[in-house]
From TrEMBL, chains A, B, C:
<comment type="similarity">
    <text>Belongs to the UPF0047 family.</text>
</comment>
<protein>
    <submittedName>
        <fullName>Secondary thiamine-phosphate synthase enzyme</fullName>
    </submittedName>
</protein>
<dbReference type="InterPro" id="IPR001602">
    <property type="entry name" value="UPF0047_YjbQ-like"/>
</dbReference>
<dbReference type="InterPro" id="IPR035917">
    <property type="entry name" value="YjbQ-like_sf"/>
</dbReference>
<dbReference type="Pfam" id="PF01894">
    <property type="entry name" value="YjbQ"/>
</dbReference>
């Protein structure tokens, strides 16, 4: 069985946006009990990742790390048409990836206790992001 | 056809733990000849990756690189409840990812000659890690 | 339905090689309308990623970033049998990953407008790279 659905995520600028509830609902509605939940962000300046879900400081530390690793406005970058966060957003997305696959176990995403699934908006300003969810299984 | 199985990996602290044998056995037992082997670690401080499988120096160099990139005890990090390796373990996991999908070819994982599949334990101390394997194919 | 095919990509040394056309053809020939396109590079010194497809400067900036992050000939690395780009190629591949899964939507790869799929050759010299494409869906 295959089921595909597009989610729209309105971001308010750089940071993590949790997707667990929307993914869980999509899996539930599909009726799939065992299988895979593939999630894909159709952009090159936002990504998908799993992060610790309990302490909000983890997301802040991750952002501090990425901001140091890929500094906005770095003179190394020639591509800056859309501002100092343009090229860093592409690199952050490459490093954290735009696709993720989760197991479906007993009709739910088979996440560990401390795992949350997040869209990472890497641009400074708000964006409307399209996320395509493809569920396979039985 | 879908088959799902949980592996338990006892780590002895930070480092790479090869999974090829256990994954190969799981694929063989499923009877699937052509398909995909999805592997997922249900934690936020361990990850899954493919690495060169012949020279143990590669793993040591990768560890040296990650230790320099994401230093334990970095004052940048506010989240340190479980020690100086706590937040670095989360970031290393985000950078190297918790999910991986391998092709199944003629009843085996379709790895290249030099590819090995590894669990990367990012915490300093020993942990029991749950890895969920989902096989699809025919 | 499952379909598997091997692509051979002749690289001319370090850099990005676009795969969209070959992947699109493989999806079209399979007849699959809805599903997943899993792509896997059977090496440990080349990787697969999605990158902005319009401005060639993005690829140059990404290369400049990776060259700074994982310098060729870094004395940190003990594994250098095949030259100063040997270990950096392994690390770049680990950071950008060897597997990627794309959604298949209405018989095509469901990429966003600005997304291109690339093989990243991380070795300085030309190589012949094997890429295994596994399509599932209906």
């Amino acid at each position: 069985m295959i089921s595909q659905q597009q989610l729209k995520i309105a971001t308010r600028g750089r940071g993590l946006y949790r997707l667990d509830d929307q993914l869980g609902r999509t899996v539930r509605e599909s009726g799939i009990r065992t299988g895979l939940c593939h999630v894909f962000v159709q952009h090159t300046s936002a990504s998908l990742l799993i992060c610790e879900n309990a302490d909000p400081q983890v997301g802040r530390d991750l952002e501090a790390f990425l901001a140091r690793l890929v500094p906005d406005g770095d003179p190394l970058f020639g591509h800056a048409d859309e501002g100092p966060d343009d090229m860093p957003a592409h690199i952050r997305s490459v490093l954290t990836k735009m696709d993720i696959s989760l197991p479906i176990v007993e009709g739910r995403c088979g996440l560990g206790t401390w795992q949350g699934v997040y869209l990472y908006e890497h641009r400074a300003h708000a964006h409307q992001r399209r996320v395509l969810v493809t569920l396979t299984g039985e």
